[in-house]
Amino acid sequence: MRPPLSKELWFSDDPNVTETLRFKQWNGKERSIYFQPPSFYVPVRDLPFVENGGVAVLCGKKVVHMDVRGNIVKLNDGTQISYDKCLIATGGSPRNLPAIERAGKDVQQRLTLFRKIEDFKSLEKISREVKSITIIGGGFLGSELACALGRRARTRGLEVIQLFPENGNMGKVLPEYLSNWTTEKVRREGVNVMPNAVVKSVSVCGNRLMIKLKDGRKVETDHIVAAVGLEPNVELAKSAGLEVDSDFGGFRVNAELQARSNIWVAGDAACFYDIKLGRRRVEHHDHAVVSGRLAGENMTGAAKPYWHQSMFWSDLGPNVGYEAIGLVDSSLPTVGVFAKATAKDTPKSATEQSGTGIRSESETEAEASEVHISPSFSPTPQVPKQGEDYGKGVIFYLRDKVVVGIVLWNIFNRMPIARKIIKDGEEHDDLNEVAKLFNIHEE
User: Fold this and answer.
1) Is 278 within 8 Å of 248 (Cβ atoms)?
2) Structure pTM?
3) CA distance 257 to 294
4) Which of 79, 120, 162, 293 has the largest count of CB atoms under 10 Å?
């Protein structure tokens, strides 16, 4: 599981966490980042002889060519593997900034493109050795890492800088007022947040890195973490003759995640047709779970379309978090309904109630059976006043007056209701009443 690499692992008190890769969830329960223990898997060479089948993982090899007519994949060592049906789940690779790519080896050696276990191990070690780390990127990953490292800044004297081109943290996702609040939250964690910052060049100056911004500002630091998005891995498209989507990237598949009659794609690399929200490509843990399961079912003949909305979540430490579903884009019109939070309204409390720290595990299959909204003449919700403490709330994202995305801010274990609202695709005269479905006013 990738989520703990930017969340819980950083809050571990275990000095050997980079070796054990075990962490305590916000509810105190301990678990490993691995889905299954090694004993779950069958050795590759034994797989043909296992009576009821099994799962084998071939490590250290890469598929470099697909022969879709012969149903054969070729590995980088020349080995060939035949198949009847094939699932492509190649994921993606972290993007770099052109300014850093042009900078040369000296800069590259002080750069982390955060994605893998090795990146967590390396950055954790670096955070103990240097005086300053700069994170470039204001999205999910950049903001989570900033908060995690910011906590360490207080005890170790580490300077943590976060810079990004948007006006505030999560600026592409959250409405402006909530993005601004999030930015102040990150600053309170000990991070020097620099919005409206576009990197012009990076160079080595003495023993340090010099980041020059387009507006003339300069930032000195010891190490850079670039968290600026993902590029889907579609190298196999050429040899396989598969279509790559020109707008979203990724292998273009239908609503059943099918690229050809016997080839399916799941996860980050799939650009699929969502029968409710249109063509999409999603880069979140729960989508990998949901789409992988759906593709697997369809490979056995289920013929199910993608309609079950995956969710995603982000925690800025154990006390502030949100869960979201659907099209969550700050360029869409939004309506927010907020209430005062209680001690129960935190990620820590949510995991205590559900028993799992990877919240999608408890919610991925659930959907409310019925959503009933009482008629009301209450006024349309207003945008909260700047400076308010957004304890908990619901943010609705609208397209043509229909709710297409929902963010649950410090409201947990209510995702089935959000999923049903998006699935129904109805217009709502009063979103204040819809917000009541999430029990936001309960003490």
Assistant:
1) no
2) 0.87
3) 8
4) 162
